[in-house]
Amino acid sequence: MNVLVLGAGQLARMMALSIKPLNIEVLAYDVGSKQVVNPLAPQHPVCDLAAGIERADVITAEFEHVAHDVLALCEASGKLKPSAQAIKIGGDRRLEKALLTTCDAANAKHHIISSEQDFQTAIEALSLPIILKSALEGYDGKGQWRLKSKEDAATIWQDIERFISSNPKQGIVAEQMVPFSREVSLVGARSVSGEVKTYPLTENHHTDGVLSVSTALADEPQLQQQATEVFTRLTQEMEYVGVLAIEFFQVGDQLLVNEIAPRVHNSGHWTQQGCDCSQFANHIRAVCGLPLGSTELARPTAMINILGEDTLPQAALGMDGVNVHWYGKEKRAGRKMGHINVSGKDQAQLEQRLLTIAQLLPNESFADIKSYIAKQCS
Ligand code: ATP
Ligand code: MG
């Protein structure tokens, strides 16, 4: 089988690595160079998009912000999974909110904004503080504004107006700030026949708006069931095929959906060591019409993102239960360069290893991660 992934970043790379044992070949479409490449050697073009579509048995995507003409071309070939519509929903917060409403999935009270009048209405309808998010192209906390008091409204509106005027399709979703106790996410897969398997919920910590640590939650049956029900409703509604992630805010015992990602997700990278079948392998299995692999927790695992560093201390690499995954990217401040999966035979050993590796990681890039681990594992 040959799979073409739209997007040639680390997610396509990890899909290719994960599925080689099943004799499945993965090529990736680099949206920058507009060339199809081998995701393990992206500097060498293989062919153009038309030829890539022609030679693929299945086409899928590693990110939701794929140009709509490219999606249309792929969908016309009959090979695209999940559907272009599902990918578009993940890339537009307005469509995402509409899906949540249709599926009766709990989420923050919100209001869609496309004019100053809407902005004023949102301020009245949602009590402050509110968070304003660009409908299109948001990621890693970019394209967001927080409005805490009415005095700041005029300044923030000026900024938003400038932002949305650059793209006639752009809009804003205003949301009430949720007083959550923690952020969790659910990664799961839905097969061609509609079978659903979900991984254990993951607890997520962010550093400056970017995911930095994800820990598999072994023992949360009530939350797991709640999240899986939402997953099942959303994916059924979209007739979804592949891996999808849902980010939630936990408030008391309730999960509110923050956003969905129609793809493999950073908060699911721990599944490479924590499960028999990773999210990457399961995504390719699903879109290829193969049976889904096990999503059960094989061993307690947490993931640490490597942000802005291209080396790690040898001692960390040499630790038992530690697996490092580099993405082969050029170093830039704050950039996701790779991740570290840390596993233990039980929760206690995992926490011990997290404390040990936290000691070894350099202060400059890992200060916040180190203090988070110290707090969580003490
Ligand atoms: P990414 O794609 O990297 O997950 P993003 O840019 O798409 O991020 P969100 O996940 O919507 O944006 O928001 C980023 C972070 O801002 C969230 O992880 C959460 O910490 C905070 N946040 C977002 N919406 C709310 C809300 N309604 N109430 C409280 N905090 C929020
Ligand atoms: Mg998010």
Evaluate the radius of gyration.
21 Å
- How many beta-strand segments? 18
- Total number of helices: 13
Give the overall average pLDDT: 97
Percent of sequence in beta strands: 25-35%
Query: Could you please say which CATH topology of the largest domain applies here?
Result: D-amino Acid Aminotransferase, Chain A, domain 1
Quickly give the CATH architecture of the largest domain. Answer: 2-Layer Sandwich
* Shape call: globular
The structural domain count equals: 3
Classify the secondary structure makeup into a structural class. alpha+beta
CATH class of the largest domain: Alpha Beta
CATH level 4 superfamily of the largest domain:
ATP-grasp fold, B domain
Q: Which cofactors or ions or other ligands sit in this model?
A: adenosine-5'-triphosphate, magnesium ion
* Distance between the ends: 47 Å
| Portion of residues within helices | 25-40%
Q: Biggest β-sheet, characterized?
A: 9 strands, antiparallel
Q: Spans of 5+ residues with little confidence (pLDDT < 50)?
A: none
Structure description:
The chain is α+β, with helices and mostly antiparallel strands and 378 residues long. The protein has three domains: 2-80, Rossmann fold; 109-176, ATP-grasp fold, A domain (Dna Ligase, domain 1, 2-Layer Sandwich); 182-377, 2-Layer Sandwich (D-amino Acid Aminotransferase, Chain A, domain 1). It has 13 helices and 18 strands. The strands form three sheets. Strands 10, 11, 12, 13, 14, 15, 16, 17 and 18 form a nine-stranded antiparallel beta sheet that branches. Strands 4-3-2-1-5 form a five-stranded mixed beta sheet. Strands 6-9-7-8 form a four-stranded antiparallel beta sheet, with helices on both faces. Strand 1 (2-6), helix 1 and strand 2 (25-30) form a beta-alpha-beta unit. The longest helix has 17 residues, at 221-237. The structure holds adenosine-5'-triphosphate and magnesium ion. Residues 247, 258-259 line the site of magnesium ion (MG).
